[in-house]
Amino acid sequence: MINTGSGVAPDPAQEPGMDQQTLFDDSEAWRIEGECVKLINRFAHFIDNRRYDELLGLMTSDCIIEWPGNRMRGVELVEMLKESPEDMASMHVITVPLFGSVTRDEADCISYLTFYQAPMSEDGVGILAGATVLAEYHDKFRRSEAGWRISGRVVKPKMARA
């Protein structure tokens, strides 16, 4: 069900494939969206702070992450990140996501990303020359036995450093 924001649940007879089990109120939709926002923020924080084992726990076992020229399972992303140079700093700055569909078991959203990456100086601070890429995250989430998890992410670059 798409959260209409009206506070009034749609009539299942007017929406094909809907039944009473899929209907819920705005407060439940907001709670689900809040859980998904936490996942988005933790994902960025864990990458930026090299907490890769915790990163894996944010994803479903079948999670697929895609960006131009790459498509991999979440576990493969974590293994790749573990091999990244330790003298590079990264910072993911993410906007408030715009949610599309939110149901009891699945949700999706789009958020904007400004990504910075820079070599670190001797004092451990990145030497910044500006944003590396501006992109959109197209995220999918699924409720699992362990709670809400990221089930897929497509990164769509919009601007990049020449």
Automatic annotation (TrEMBL):
Listed name of the protein:
Nuclear transport factor 2 family protein
Pfam families of this UniProt entry? Answer: SnoaL_4
Q: Where is the SnoaL-like domain?
A: 34-153
Which species expresses this protein natively? Sphingobium phenoxybenzoativorans
Q: Where is this region: Disordered?
A: 1-20
SUPFAM superfamilies documented for this protein: NTF2-like
State the source organism's domain of life: Bacteria
